[in-house]
Amino acid sequence: MAARTGRHLQRYNQDHRLVVGCIPYRYKINGKNGRPEPEDDLEVLVISSKKSEAMMFPKGGWEVDESVEEAASRESLEEAGVLGNVEMSVAEAREVCTQWWMKEALEILVDRLKSPTHKQEN
Predict the structure, then answer these.
(1) In sequence order, which residues have a C-beta less than 8 Å from that of residue 4 and are 6 or more positions away?
(2) At 82, which helix (H) or strand (E)?
């Protein structure tokens, strides 16, 4: 997959460019009592920014010819494949991700992984 360039296909909502992203994650061990625990056993992938030393989740522009899922997948591949990455615990990610919406997305992920519905499905 070739990285896309330019903004001529970008989606906008009024004056704001729409972006998509992912929180790539994995469980690092089998977990306590045979079940992984999101707070202790979950690692997330964050990438470094080209513009600063900020760490963030892979994200980027959502283009008009893509579904939100396709755009998020493409951005994760482009961003995480091009920039350096670090696997870290949820607690570490909370500290290094400075943007509020990234922290909020991380909390939503952890809450979903803790939910009884998710545990029944796995």
Answers:
(1) 63, 74, 78
(2) helix 68-82
- In the block, tokens 């970008």 appear at 10
77, 21 Cβ separation under 8 angstroms: no
Is residue 91 classed exposed, middle or buried when 0-12, 13-18 and 19+ CB atoms within 10 A define those classes? exposed
For the chain, domain boundaries: 12-121
Amino acid at 99: Q
pLDDT in tens, 66-84: 888 788 778 888 877 633 3
pTM here is: 0.56
Identify the CATH number of the domain defined by range 12-121. Answer: 3.90.79.10
